[in-house]
Amino acid sequence: MTARIGVVTFPGSLDDRDTQRAIRLAGAEPVALWHKDKDLKQVDAVVLPGGFSYGDYLRAGAISRFSPVMGTVIEQAKSGLPVLGICNGFQVLTEAHLLPGAMLGNDHLHFICRDQKLRVENAETSWTGDYTAGQEIHIPLKNMDGRYVADEYTLDKLEAEGRVAFRYVDFNPNGSLRDIAGITNEAGNVVGLMPHPEHAVEPLIGSGRTDGLPFFTSILKKLVGA
């Protein structure tokens, strides 16, 4: 039996179906989760997808962090449940304090949508095992509030502990400090990033690349081999 990976839908989510498709292409079973439900339906992992949950009011991800489903996600993530936050999902993870730092508006004050070059910095998390450290990949990026910030102590700690998972290469699209595109928690089960791997899983759509598919094959192998 294959792994079951839940995808949470918040009001304003718009990449939940794409994420479910990416999970299915990787060989796992996607399970739809609703933001008002505390029950995670016994899934093996959870993805918080991209979008503009609650219209990004107050701050991006600030309201979604208090959705009933997040209480369960936070509790189980602390006990080892693999969780991936993509774009708005990354914002939710910082608001929920499952990942350190915060997301602010892009330094150029404009929405940006482009095919973004990244370097894999950590290939040992639950979600990055099918990559190799130092590998360069191209993943679509689309955000308005994608600037990752943290105090110097936190940034130095992330660097020292190898918790920067992805870094922007050649061009920093939003002013993120130290070119950080994604990070992981200490245990490696929680990962957040601004680019959208679910849009790079088939050669005929999206970016025309499949550089994002290893996110989903990585977690499948991790769960099946557990």
Structure description:
With 226 residues, the protein is α/β, with parallel strands linked by helices. The chain is 22% helix and 25% strand. It is built from 5 helices and 11 strands, in the order E-H-E-E-H-E-H-E-E-E-E-H-E-E-E-H. The chain has helices spanning 16-26, 68-77, 88-95, 152-160, 213-224; strands spanning 4-9, 29-34, 45-48, 83-86, 102-104, 112-120, 136-143, 147-149, 164-168, 180-184, 190-193. It has a 9-stranded mixed β-sheet with strand order 2-1-3-4-11-10-9-6-7, sandwiched between helices. Strand 3, helix 2 and strand 4 (83-86) form a beta-alpha-beta unit. Helix 1 (16-26) crosses helix 5. The chain is globular, with a radius of gyration of 16 Å. The chain starts with a strand and ends with a helix. The model has no long low-confidence stretch (mean pLDDT 95).
Which short descriptors sum up this protein?
226 residues, 5 helices, two-stranded antiparallel ribbon, nine-stranded mixed sheet
